[in-house]
From TrEMBL:
Main location: cytoplasm
Binding site for Zn(2+): C128, C131, C148, C151
Gene name as annotated: adk
Any one GO biological process: AMP salvage
Source species, domain of life: Bacteria
Record organism: Eiseniibacteriota bacterium
Entry protein name: Adenylate kinase
Binding-site residues for ATP, renumbered to this chain: G10, S11, G12, K13, G14, T15, R125, I134, Y135, G197
Domain notes: Consists of three domains, a large central CORE domain and two small peripheral domains, NMPbind and LID, which undergo movements during catalysis. The LID domain closes over the site of phosphoryl transfer upon ATP binding. Assembling and dissambling the active center during each catalytic cycle provides an effective means to prevent ATP hydrolysis. Some bacteria have evolved a zinc-coordinating structure that stabilizes the LID domain.
Catalyzed chemical reaction(s): AMP + ATP = 2 ADP
Length: 214
């Protein structure tokens, strides 16, 4: 299946994308993760993306389309993929369409969450720097404070989850990415999912949408 996860920062794309990728047996392709890794490794891509990511602005479309073309060209993505954080502009959506040629997306899941909920989720979000597991200090805390349940490594917060950068990211989302809801509605692939509740309830709603699209 070819699935796009749409929704503002903190709507749960990473959490649900990971589970969906495991259950459908297709790779999760998260442009934010790819960019953060490139930044950590100090590659040319990382150097060109660094300032954009740090300030909560979008990395240029050509850069992101280039990395998506490479990633979706790999063998493991031939049977499908879950895209998290891409596309983020209409130009990226058009680029994806031409990359896919005749193979349309099966489903675009729009995770709908009120702004005040995402702001508090991002404030409480902790991540394992080693394995990427995601926690929420108030609703899904780790068993041992500050330590990952999966691999025992130290948990960290993303620098762009700091309140001022979150405000910028939400502004960018409203201006650049929210128009994709109407775009994919016109394409007939969009399903809205109320993603404001508990992760288990949201995932059950996602599975129902997947079941209808399969
Ligand atoms: P995310 O992990 O999806 O929240 O992305 C973190 C940051 O990476 C964003 O705030 C952007 O700076 C950058 N980024 C991720 N995906 C894209 C994309 N599709 N287009 C442009 N910038 C992106």
């Amino acid at each position: 299946m070819r699935v796009v996860l749409l929704g503002p920062p903190g709507s749960g794309k990473g959490t649900h994308g990971k589970r969906l990728s495991e259950s459908l047996g297709v790779p999760l392709v998260a442009t934010g993760d790819i960019l953060r890794q490139a930044i950590a490794e100090g590659t040319a891509l990382g150097k060109s993306a660094q300032e954009h990511v740090k300030s909560g602005r979008l990395v240029p479309d050509e850069t992101v389309l280039g990395l998506i073309e490479t990633r979706l060209g790999r063998r493991d993505a031939q049977g499908g993929f879950i895209l998290d954080g891409f596309p983020r502009t209409v130009a990226q959506a058009e680029g994806l369409k031409s990359l896919l040629g005749g193979r349309p997306l099966d489903l675009v899941l729009n995770l709908v969450v009120p702004t005040e909920v995402v702001v508090s989720r991002l404030r409480d979000r902790w991540l394992c720097a080693k394995c990427g597991a995601i926690y929420n200090a108030s609703t899904a805390p780790p068993k041992v404070a500050g330590r990952c349940d999966v691999c025992g490594s130290a948990l960290t917060q993303r620098t762009d989850d700091e309140p001022e950068t979150v405000r910028k990211r939400l502004e960018v989302y409203a201006r650049e990415t929210a128009p994709l809801v109407a775009y994919y509605e016109r394409e007939g692939a969009l399903r809205n999912v109320d993603a404001s509740g508990l992760a288990a309830d949201v995932y059950a709603a996602i599975q129902r949408s997947i079941g209808k699209a399969a």
